[in-house]
Specification:
Order of helices and strands: HHEEEEEEEEH
Distance between the termini: 60 Å
Strand order of the largest sheet: 1-2-3-6-7
Helix content: 25-40%
Strand content: 25-35%
Number of domains: 1
Radius of gyration: 22 Å
Largest sheet: 5 strands, antiparallel
Number of helices: 3
Structural class: alpha+beta
Keywords: Signal
Number of strands: 8
């Protein structure tokens, strides 16, 4: 009888846990991307560009891409983009006041395009993207890393094979 009671207790506890999980609100890709967008926007440091950059665009999309575009005063444009699921590691060089955030990908996963450059338009691939940031505390960096890792841990859609 004790064995039956123990099995019943285990079953009830398991059923209760499943019940609670069913009503939990797991975070979605959109929530992680929204946090990253807000962090990058709040902490971006345009003063590190030494007046060479006229304007910039830094966007994290809801479908899991990071796009960073810089427009220089001389007309040159640099564009960087990568899929957040390709995140490998992150480094930060600087102080809490100002520094550079290096986001590394698993391979040559960062698309790099330059327009109106002296050497002509160039398309290439890179393994990292560098974002100038300011007022970055250790907990901010940990949150950014956690969100990037959670995006990587999410199941990726399987592409249908073409016939």
């Amino acid at each position: 009888m004790k064995k039956f009671t123990l099995c019943l207790k285990i079953s009830l506890v398991s059923a209760f846990c499943v019940f609670l999980y069913a009503f939990s609100d797991p975070e979605t890709l959109e929530q992680y991307a929204g946090y990253l967008q807000k962090s990058f926007t709040d902490h971006y440091d345009s003063s590190q560009e030494n007046g060479q950059v006229k304007r910039y665009e830094l966007n994290v999309t809801n479908n899991g891409f990071c796009r960073y575009k810089r427009y220089f005063n001389n007309g040159k444009t640099e564009y960087f983009a990568f899929k957040l699921a390709k995140f490998k590691d992150m480094d930060y060089y600087g102080t809490t006041n100002a520094g550079k955030l290096y986001i590394h990908t698993k391979g040559d996963d960062v698309i790099v395009q330059t327009y109106k450059d002296r050497g002509g338009d160039v398309d290439s691939m890179a393994t990292q993207i560098i974002i100038p940031v300011k007022n970055m505390e250790a907990e901010d960096l940990n949150q950014i890393r956690d969100n990037l890792e959670k995006i990587c841990a999410q199941p990726q859609p399987v592409k249908a094979q073409e016939q």
